[in-house]
Amino acid sequence: MDINTRIAQRLRELRDARGYSLEALAERSGVSRSNISLIERGRSSPTAVVLDKLAIGLSVALASFFDDSADGADSPGREPLSPLIRRADQPLWQDPASGYVRRRLSPPAPSPLQLVEVSFPPGQRVSLDSAVHDADIHQQVWLIEGRMELTVGDTTWPLAAGDCLAMQLNQPIVFHNPGKKPARYVVALTTVAGPFDPGGPSGRFASSTPTPHKRKKKEP
Questions:
Q1: How far apart are CA 189 and CA 171, in angstroms?
Q2: 117-150, pLDDT tens digit by residue?
């Protein structure tokens, strides 16, 4: 299954599970009905920003669109999902807008932890709303190479290789590569209760070691 087909299937599953019509999800997410329909039919490649809006409308984490633990493969009478995934089989997705590449490292078997590897192009910026949801999702970003600036709420955290930033997800988050080379980092996501079928980014910013830079609030 290619990644756009997976996203289309997961979007339909998540919408159907909540009993939302296309119109209802459009109203909740701010994504047009026609765009949602195109995505569900695999005829549109959504950007990270669009997926984030849909995730907020569905009260799930953005990572849920890449998860296959809820596709019924581990239901009674079928083979259990594998606890191992080879690198060659790890799904890749590229954001059409920024060009960042997301690799799902975690095996398909249900787990309270999910690992994602990201390659982020120089000069690019991605802003995610990460509004309040039902589940308590914790995230850590470990920078392997390059430079990144992560803005969580009103606080900007410059990251160098080896730095790791922890947060809970209920505030806007901006990912920015200020350098001239691609950055590569690993994201670890976990929910406080239950296997990883995240009910969505929730909680608030926690802590990390880098020195923060406070952003000035815009004048009204």
A1: 16
A2: 999 999 999 999 865 555 578 899 999 999 999 9
Helix (H) or strand (E) holding 16: helix 3-18
Kindly state which CATH superfamily the domain 3-60 is placed in: lambda repressor-like DNA-binding domains (1.10.260.40)
DSSP string over 80-111: PPPS---GGGS-EEE-TTT--EEEE-S-SS--
The class (CATH top level) of 87-214 is mainly beta
Q: pTM for this one?
A: 0.80
| Separation of alpha carbons 158 and 165, rounded Å | 10
Tokens 């803005």 sit on residue: 151
Phi, psi of 194 (to 5 degrees): 85, 165
**pLDDT tens figures, 72-128:** 444 556 678 899 999 999 999 999 999 999 999 999 898 889 999 999 999 999 999
Q: Where are the domains of the chain?
A: 3-60, 87-214
Element spanning 122, H or E? none
